[in-house]
Design a protein that fits this description.
Layout (H helix, E strand, L loop, with lengths): L6 H14 L6 H25 L1 H7 L4 H4 L4 H23 L1 H21 L3 H19 L11 H22 L7 H25 L3 H27 L3 H23 L4 H8 L2 H8 L6
């Protein structure tokens, strides 16, 4: 549940990227695409449980499908339905380019959940779901993303790499003693922060925008560094799990740092989603 609130900031970041390039669009379009991204994420988590049901039956009996509270067939049906609804919403609010982008996110989700999980390509597939989610946000301005400067299109690649690194750590959460996986996630976080600095120099925001973007980047460093240090010092499930959760929620701050280059309001619009995400993280696990 907390993870759902990390999806709209990706879309807001995408819209901010094309805003920097001079594109115009109405806020309602961005809001509609954000709703589509939430449906995509919800569909992905549902399908994840459906595909993992045989494993959960052996290791996690308390989950909805192994416990019998939800049938596996119903979970597959709901998951795929949510993906289709997301594509439909994207088409209604922003046309064909948005529907294609949402469809690519859905393909990456199914590829990760059903085929690639645990493999090297799986980490990239999970990262791609987030990078493509940023591209979904760019379609708020139609096909303007194709005309955007390369420096703007590099941002989704940074998000992809960061999420892939965090996924690599998450996949080894239960192994114990795997400092290398934690180091990979930490390296991904450092690279992402450096990319924020490069992006600010490339875009040349106002002084206020630069200060606020830097504040978001510093907040991101503070947010993820403590749990990552704890996980590296003692890489056991009880420390790696919280590090994974912090890195997932920290994506909101990273999105906000990049988005602020288009205007402080963009950064705040993305960053505000951290509030409900953190609130719900006290009730539900972040994975």
């Amino acid at each position: 549940m907390p993870n759902l609130f990390t999806a709209p900031p990706d879309v807001i970041l995408g819209a901010a990227l094309v805003s920097v390039a001079g594109s115009d669009f109405v806020p309602a379009t961005v809001a509609g695409l954000a709703i589509a991204s939430v449906c995509l994420y919800a569909g992905g988590t549902t399908l994840n449980d459906a595909f993992d049901a045989p494993i959960d039956a052996r290791e996690r009996h308390e989950r909805p499908i192994p416990s019998g509270r939800v049938s596996r067939r119903a979970a597959f049906g709901l998951g795929f339905a949510l993906l289709l609804v997301a594509v439909g919403i994207a088409f209604v609010v922003a046309g064909g380019p948005a529907a294609v982008a949402a469809g690519l996110v859905a393909v990456a989700i199914v590829a990760y959940d059903g085929l690639l999980k645990g493999a090297a390509a799986g980490f990239l597939a999970m990262g791609a779901t987030r990078g493509l989610n940023v591209l979904l946000g760019t379609t708020a301005a139609g096909s303007a993303v194709l005309e955007s400067p390369l420096r703007l299109l590099a941002v989704p690649a940074v998000i992809t790499g960061y999420v892939a690194a965090v996924t690599f750590m998450a996949a080894r959460e239960t192994e114990g003693g795997n400092r290398g996986a934690v180091a990979v996630a930490a390296a991904g976080a450092v690279a992402a922060v450096l990319a924020v600095g490069w992006y600010l120099v490339a875009v040349g925001p106002t002084a206020l925008e630069a200060v606020v973007a830097t504040a978001f980047a510093v907040a991101f460093c503070w947010w993820v560094s403590r749990p990552l240090r704890a996980a590296y010092a003692d890489p056991v499930p009880s420390t790696v799990g919280p590090a994974v959760g912090a890195c997932v929620l920290g994506l909101v701050l990273l999105d906000a740092a990049f988005a602020t280059a288009a205007g402080v309001r963009w950064g705040l619009a993305a960053g505000v989603f951290l509030i409900p995400a953190v609130g719900l993280s006290h009730v539900f696990d972040v994975t």
